[in-house]
Design a protein that fits this description.
Elements (H helix, E strand, L loop, with lengths): L1 E7 L4 E7 L5 E5 L6 H10 L3 E6 L11 H8 L2 E5 L9 E3 L4 E4 L2 E7 L8 E5 L3 E5 L17 H10 L9 E4 L9 E2 H7 L8 H9 L9 H8 L9
Parallel strand pairs: 3-4, 4-5, 5-6, 10-11
Antiparallel strand pairs: 1-2, 2-3, 7-8, 8-9, 9-10, 11-12
Length: 231
């Protein structure tokens, strides 16, 4: 399996390129519009064919590159079930699997950061967590239908039930971390370690974070698969 972690400095977003090394079929997870040229160049250099773009959720801090990539490559755009993006080619529900030749990508419903959010488990060994679980942190829960109690439940009951050695690849990082493990996050993540459900809800409701700078443009654009900025 080919696996690449790509970074957007402006939004601190990770995009993941995954491909079957034999058939060259590829998928991008959470592409960023401003990085489309980079992503296309890498795909061409590696001789890959982009079949899918997967979104973990409707992003508020950047505009997805899926719309542009669909135009350029003919790939399909996939969003979580019930995400407000009717322009998507397909929705995925909890437990559903996208088979990319030798690679199995299983959706795990992880609402709480937003009301429709998926993590993706790749070949049972690498977990793309989006904003549900960050390295030593988690996504905020104060808009887009977020719910701190729901996020606590899905992280502690679903993600932390995976084997300790499962690799954790988040949707963002602001401290320079690139990868962790489920065992490491269960033990050291300060949002969850030492907190019960009520303590976590109190913690998240007291963060008082500023809204993302691009939120007013990013959310409506992403509900149109990134195409609103092209009008």
């Amino acid at each position: 399996m080919l696996f690449r972690q790509l970074f957007d400095q402006e939004s601190s977003t990770y995009t993941y390129l995954i491909a079957d090394v034999q058939t060259k079929a590829a998928v991008l997870v959470d592409p960023v519009l401003e990085k489309t040229e980079r992503d296309i160049q890498l795909i061409q250099e590696l001789g890959l064919t982009l079949r899918y773009c997967l979104e973990t959720h409707i992003h508020a801090d950047h505009i997805t590159g899926t719309g542009k990539l669909r135009q350029l490559t003919g790939c399909l755009g996939i969003v979580p079930e019930n995400a407000p993006a009717s322009c998507a080619d397909q929705q995925m529900r909890d437990g559903e699997i996208v088979q990319l030749d030798s690679i199995a990508i299983k959706a795990i419903a992880t609402p709480g950061h937003t009301d429709s959010h998926l993590a993706y488990l790749i070949n049972k060994e690498r977990l793309l967590t989006g904003d549900s679980l960050l390295i030593r942190g988690c996504g905020r829960t104060d808009f887009q239908g977020g719910n701190p109690g729901t996020l606590f439940d899905v992280v502690t009951q679903k993600l932390f039930s995976l084997p300790d050695e499962t690799l954790v690849y988040p949707g963002h990082d602001y401290q320079g971390f690139t990868v962790s493990t489920i065992g490491e996050e269960r033990k050291y993540n300060p949002r969850f370690s030492g907190h019960n459900r009520e303590g976590f809800i109190q913690l998240m409701n007291g963060l008082n974070l500023l809204n993302p700078q691009k939120m007013m443009a990013a959310v409506p654009a992403n509900e149109r698969c990134g195409n609103a900025v092209l009008v």
